[in-house]
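Review form for a predicted model. The reviewer records the input and the model, then writes brief findings.
Reviewer: anonymous (R2)
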Amino acid sequence: MTGRLRLGAQAAAVALVAALLLLLVWRTVRDEEGEGLARAVAAGEPVPAPDFDLERIDAEGRLSVDSLRGQPAVINFWASWCKPCEEEVPLLEQVWQEHRDDGLVVVGVDSQDFTGDARRFAERNGITYPLVHDGPGDVMRRYDLTGLPETYFLDRQGRLVCGHIIGGIHVNDEIEGKFRECVDEILRS
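Model under review:
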């Protein structure tokens, strides 16, 4: 190996180590700032829901977390390009129809998506619960999402409770059971 080639390989190795170190620092900072929410909710601690005020997809106007205070809410993050998101819509719609007269609100937060695609998705899937648009995914990051779909549960005091569900709520009986238990819990709040 020539000296020049060896020096280049050493420089590449140093750059790789520096990049990995930066990634480690970034991940540590993100854990401290961001993932505390998901961790706290998973540990059973009621946590104030991070606020959002987003444009509605299904109607004129905006919807915010503050506007939900006093009502139990299921907050479901989704996107039109997400197949598991589409597969869980019937269950979300069913729960919305069953419990809306009890005060339950199901809110679909469309993230990392185009508004037109989201509207077509909603029409194609017969969604009647409120939908808002988080185009770039800013709210998604505040809720520490690792992907789509994910679902949180908001009690009447505006706190996230009962953990959250990563992935589709329809995947198996155990996850669907947890979803329904959490809906019951927020209805009792």
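Findings: Residues 1-33 form one domain.
Further findings: The radius of gyration is 20 Å.
Recommendation: see findings above.
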